[in-house]
Amino acid sequence: MTRNALKIIDKAMESLGLEYGFVRYTKKPIVYPYWVGEYQENTPVDESGYSNSSFLLTGFHRGEWDVLETQKESINDYFNKVSGKTVMAEDGSAVAIFYANSLVVPTIDAELKRIQINLDVHEWSVKLMIKSGITAGTPAKILFGAGVYFQGVEYSETEAPTEEAIKAAIIGATQDGGTLTITPEFFAPELDGATVALMELQQKVGETAQMDISYAELTADLMAKMAVGKIGESTDKMYDVVTSSVLKKDHFYKGFGYYGEFLDGRPIIILFKNALCTSGFTTDAKNKTNSVFKGTMACQSDIEYGTTKLPYAIFIRKKEGWASADATDLVA
To answer: Mean pLDDT, to the nearest integer, of 198-222?
Structure first.
């Protein structure tokens, strides 16, 4: 675990106004509640410069449990489970810290309360090695996190949707992330004497684009779009009822897309003008786990846009003019 990661945690505890010491709390007299930090590194699996560690924050208090629980919640909010705390260092390395879980630790002293918080720490160091391809710019080019999927924003190939518009259009929570696949289709005549592919003969004659997503939330609208159904209502008006339907315009998503971020916080936005679920509706209900609803959202053109290419746009925020909002977290 690097000093950069330790600085981020130290700065976090200071900004939250919490008493804290690394390895040992040394303040005299002791001010309760206080927190002590320590870490355990995991063995690197390769030479990519990526490493993962577990950081343990242990809180101690002689008083009401609610005080420790309130401080635990503030730490949880700071190192959010989903978005985490991501910081880029001046040398190009990156650190991402996430709240993992917590547990109450019993003590022999009946008056002493103790809670342990586990933080998941991911680090990307910069080591110039010809055998790995890592450069000083590598961490800033890494996409990190599951991101969110949305629908209903205005489609444009020159103007990215705003964060406010995307937040208002989020479809729901996902699980196990998702994938984007864009596949061009090529044709080349098979000429006598040409025994290898020739680039001058290649022609792009079509393309497909799709996003494969695992939804964790289920609504009647999502089910109707995936199954190509229609939504009705039970006679007692207590249930939405999805039944089979012919394909209609409202089965297509308009302004469907994905929002994610690089390690330095720069956004990437993938936008389909139209999308249709071509996989149908499927779920796999099992014991002791939640169900997920997997769908393939295929990009579709329309007569207005044209018949020779797909209406998709991928917006990647340039590094010029972008400053990591959390750079001050590494200030000594």
So the answer is: 92
Taking the C-alpha atoms of residue 273 and residue 260, their distance in angstroms, rounded to an integer, is 18
CATH number, position 118: 3.30.2000.20
Residues 6+ apart with CB under 8 A from 197: 188
What does DSSP say about strands 174-187 and 94-104: parallel, antiparallel, or unpaired?
A: unpaired
| pLDDT number for residue 91 | 67
pLDDT at 131: 57
Instruction: Enter the DSSP assignment of 29.
Output: S
Structural domain including 220 reads 143-316
Same domain, 148 and 284: yes
Find the Cα–Cα–Cα–Cα dihedral 225, 230, 234, 238, rounded to 10°.
Answer: 30
Residue 327 lies in a domain: no
Same domain, 182 and 299: yes
Give the total number of structural domains in the chain.
2
Distance (Å, rounded) from C-alpha 60 to C-alpha 57?
Answer: 10
pTM for the whole structure: 0.69
Burial class of residue 168, CB neighbours in 10 A (0-12, 13-18, 19+): exposed
**Would you say how long the chain is, in residues?**
332
**One domain, residues 232 and 196:** yes
* Residue 49 pLDDT: 73
59 and 167 inside one domain: no
